[in-house]
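1st attempt posting a full record on here, be nice pls
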Amino acid sequence: MNHKLGRNDPCTCGSGKKYKHCCQKAEQTRAAEGRADAIPKAAQWLLGKHEKAALEAIDDYFFGGLDDDEYARLQEMPEDDYGMVMLNAMEWLLADGIVDIRGEDCRVADLLFGKGGPLLSLEQRQWLEALTAMPLRLYEITEVNPGSSLTLRDVLLPDRPTVLVHEQAGSQLAYPYDLIGARVVPFDGHYELSGAVYPFNRNGSWGLLEELRDELQGVEPDSQLAKEITSLIIPDYWLGAFLAVDDLPELVDQGTGEPLVFVTDHYRVKDWDALELALSREESIEGSREAGWDRLFEGEDGQLRSNLNIELGKRPDRIKVSYRTQSFADKGRPWFEKTAGKSIAFISRGITDPIGILANPKPDRDKQLPPAGQLSPEEQTEFIGKAIHQHYAYWADEPLPVLGGLTPREAIQTPEGLEQVKFLLHTYEHGEAQLARDQNREPVSYGFLWQALGIKP
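the predicted structure (as tokens):
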């Protein structure tokens, strides 16, 4: 009686070795190579038999959401980029495409496996059957084992168990909390990525998440309808982002809408008692010498925010006064120096943007900063950490558009809102980790935001 050869069984080649130490790897390699030819073979057959219908389906559905300018940019993009787009388009056509054959809509999968379909090996047919059965879903990578595997979490179904996928090449380029559209295909006792991957910038994914949630509301997650919805929305958003003209977004202060910039004035303290007394007399000032001081104001939305922060410097006679916008700094410095009087003496001013790349100061600013290359990684992390802590000081209780106008503290009261807040926090962490890698420094921790909400990372 035939049975599947076990890994620890004697190899049938007669070597005397166990199967796993002998022919198993060679057979797995041959099977993988055979699977790799499945999509090109099926695509070649489809284009040979139904070229006009196949290309029309790609244009009408896969590229259907592009406007004229985007479609023109698609035709003009570099060959490598165009090849990647077409690889995704062809896999989409085989897995989800519907073509018009003599006035009738036909699923491409039915054509492939029906009478007169392409001649496929057993491994190729099994792979294509598994591929066409699986939906295109949105995942975030929670764990990376470079050269071996990825652990994926379904963003829209967060209660489902994570999935470990065998992935050699992609795992060498991936990082935790990367966001991708992909098909996870079960095959030969494990999971693999199908080949076509749709990477997304987490910061630009809010529209995608909103549309997917809206369209899938009330739809059975594993139904054919859910598969059709995700197979159209995910490629459409990915193409739109891929073909977008790069415009660097302006980072703004949430309370004022002004451009975000990190300004720090350094002072020598000549009389600590006089300084502490002067600050204690100001109603808008809260804090102490040990904890630092903040000057608070009420924004137009009724939220209390800080427009000036004072903390101890590295030397016992030094303090740092920090601001997060240029206008806060321009107004804050005269106010502070008048309040502190002769108890302090100005030393210098430093300016950075909130993501750690030093801005070139305007000619009328007080003091030139050293170029970024003259700052150590530790100093860059210190600047950025200070900016992040100041910018997000009241984040937990500020209404956020991405949370439907709720504050994070309000949003976490529901399971869906909790997942949205976690996704948002992971997005912050992902962006900072990416920037830290680029700048060869340690990333700043966002643990203080998790702690502020009382939830665990």
